[in-house]
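In response to reviewer comment 3 from the previous cycle, which asked for concrete evidence that the modeling workflow produces usable outputs, we include below a single protein chain processed end to end. The sequence was submitted unchanged, and the resulting structure tokens are shown without manual editing.
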Amino acid sequence: MRCWNSGRSIGVLGLGILLGLAACIPGPSGVTRGPSSGVSPAHALSLPAYAVEGLSLDQGELAWSGIRIGTPRAELEKLLAMRIGPLDANEICASFVATRALGDMRITFEFADEGVDAPLEHLFIALQGDLPQIEQIARLKQRLPASTYVPSRYAPDLAERDNPKPVYRVATTRPRVVMLNADEGLWLGDPRCYD
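The workflow returned the following structure tokens.
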């Protein structure tokens, strides 16, 4: 039997080893390519250093790192080259959620229902050693200059700088808000469930 003695078998084995090693070579900005990296190819280069720096307006809608509020789940799955699901019920906001990793960031996607056509209503980006809140507020205002601070309905006299979870209304095609929580994360989406 001539299994491993064949020149063709050795060539195939060598090619397999090279392809396996290529998947482990760091890509641009230190991002590792390959299926085990946890980084979707569509987003490998667009993740910000700090969560607040991913905020933007995209086609008149609030977005984070290219993920636009209002985008149907099926479209997001194509954009991210990953499945978002199965979804779990969230009784607080009467919605369905799934948490996934994009690079080193944990992202929670929230939809009105379980359908693939359900639009993204909320996005939560968990912070990991992010900036102090005062710096996050400054960067938010740079990224979204038309945003306005919304005083807490529980403590309307609480100053913006003293609010542990400041909320900002963002001028978009539909009502949207961003909430900063220096201890937990960055939340954005429909204002009906932010407080």
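The first helix runs from residue 7 to 22. We consider this sufficient to address the reviewer's concern, and the full set will be provided in the supplementary archive.
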